[in-house]
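Example 9 (inverse folding). The structure is encoded as follows.
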């Protein structure tokens, strides 16, 4: 059989694997529910890749080409996989060192339930704006805010939605963010022009989000009070609590602000967390070790178990028992498995030309400026679903639509803003996308739980469409 080095498939052929994948995932979730992420969804993604490969085989696309594309996709998520492993280790040492419990201890006293959700947005927005990373924000203050909010009796889906909304707002506007740099690069624009132009849709989106969470805060507060004293007393009975423990998270954030590679900063956080556990939580380590006394062997063994496997610290408070548990690096393996399978599907779809066919079809349909923006939004979301990677959702539509925007006399910042409003922020709303899988795993909240509350992330796409429909701030070339 002659192999085709330049695949060209029709839109119908390109949609076959995508439609089948969506139907099978819907069936899978209806049967397994939240347990579908335990492995069955991963197999469905591999099955989708197999179906896409079948289409490729019929179109005479070589097996080697498809496998090479999968390998390229897997290589692109190497950093994400390593970050996940480090975050799992970080969660373990920050628990037994008392860092997270101390954050919860002070947080439930400072952050009143009435203002907690809006405060989450502000805190995460500031950290993400400073670091340029929504992932780092979730792995540090995000984890603590989830614990504080749950202790205050606030639904974890709401908390995660507020954390993610704030984190992605800061990520979008930070000049340190990789996606904020990538979008104008793909559109042929300037970074700071892009950021200024993006504020036109981003600021209204976060204002609406803030107001909604303010209302949710009032509604949640009216549902009843939480006995903070019971929570704080339980924490003090099991952990040494002191502001000195904040040294570790502050140092990690400062390192990231100083542009230290995230993997290095997280490793320092893990090691310092373990060191602080040995200094300040010896009684806790002794109880976890099951040994008669805490010596080098028992201490080392306990910390390694905390870093690599699941740990549970039992109290007489059921809510805190849920908070004081971690899966360590082992707990991240399900998410890593999901990412690998998603990258396999995305790689094959790219190799057979399916992603390009879908984008070209959307481009041909666009006859007006509004339809062009709508096509860009649809293309970004489609690639987030199929390729499972936010970077590809910026790169592929950016390349495909760049000339079309120029031909319509539209400035490149129109395209770069649309890419961010629909590509960067919607990635977290898809369970098998790298961003959705990461945030769900780190925060311990399923995408299905926080989807409706990640208000900023889906309202951003609607905002950019609204501006295009009403012809608001659509900049033309001079």
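The amino acid assigned to each position is listed next.
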């Amino acid at each position: 059989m002659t192999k085709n080095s330049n695949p060209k498939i029709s839109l119908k052929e390109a949609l076959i694997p995508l439609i089948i994948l969506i139907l099978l995932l819907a069936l899978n979730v209806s049967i397994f529910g939240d347990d579908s992420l335990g492995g069955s969804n991963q197999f469905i993604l591999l099955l989708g890749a197999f179906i896409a490969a079948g289409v490729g085989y019929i179109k005479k696309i070589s097996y080697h080409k498809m496998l090479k594309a999968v390998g390229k996709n897997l290589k692109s998520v190497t950093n994400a996989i390593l970050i996940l492993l480090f975050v799992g280790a970080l969660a373990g040492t920050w628990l037994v060192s008392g860092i997270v419990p101390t954050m919860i201890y002070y947080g439930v006293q400072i952050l009143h339930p009435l203002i907690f959700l809006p405060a989450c947005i502000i805190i995460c927005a500031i950290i993400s704006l400073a670091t340029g990373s929504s992932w780092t924000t979730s792995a540090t203050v995000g984890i603590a805010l989830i614990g504080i909010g749950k202790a205050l009796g606030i639904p974890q889906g709401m908390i995660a939605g507020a954390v993610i909304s704030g984190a992605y707002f800061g990520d979008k506007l930070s000049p340190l963010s990789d996606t904020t740099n990538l979008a104008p690069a793909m559109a042929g624009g300037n970074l700071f022009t892009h950021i200024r132009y993006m504020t036109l849709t981003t600021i209204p989106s976060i204002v609406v989000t803030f107001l909604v969470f303010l209302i949710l805060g009032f509604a949640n507060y009216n549902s009843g009070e939480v006995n903070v004293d019971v929570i704080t007393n339980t924490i003090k009975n099991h952990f040494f609590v002191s502001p000195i423990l904040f040294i570790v998270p502050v140092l990690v954030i400062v390192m990231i602000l100083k542009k230290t590679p995230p993997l290095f900063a997280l490793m320092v956080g893990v090691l310092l967390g373990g060191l602080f556990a040995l200094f300040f939580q010896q009684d806790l380590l002794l109880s976890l070790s099951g040994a008669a006394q805490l010596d080098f062997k028992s201490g080392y063994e306990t910390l390694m178990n905390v870093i690599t496997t699941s740990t549970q610290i039992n109290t007489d408070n059921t809510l805190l028992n849920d908070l004081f548990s971690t899966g360590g690096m082992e707990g991240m393996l399900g998410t890593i498995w999901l990412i690998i399978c998603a990258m396999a599907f995305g790689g094959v779809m790219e190799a057979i030309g399916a992603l390009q066919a879908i984008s070209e079809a959307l481009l041909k349909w666009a006859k007006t400026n509004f339809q062009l923006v709508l096509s860009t939004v649809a293309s970004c979301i489609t690639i987030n679903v199929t390729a499972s990677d936010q970077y590809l959702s910026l790169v592929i539509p950016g390349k495909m639509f760049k000339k079309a925007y120029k031909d319509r006399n539209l400035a490149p910042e129109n395209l770069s803003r649309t890419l961010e409003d629909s590509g960067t922020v919607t990635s977290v709303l898809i369970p098998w996308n790298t961003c959705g899988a990461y945030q769900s795993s780190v925060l311990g909240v399923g995408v299905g739980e926080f989807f409706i509350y990640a208000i900023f992330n889906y309202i951003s796409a609607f905002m950019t469409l609204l501006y295009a429909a009403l012809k608001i701030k659509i900049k033309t070339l001079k």
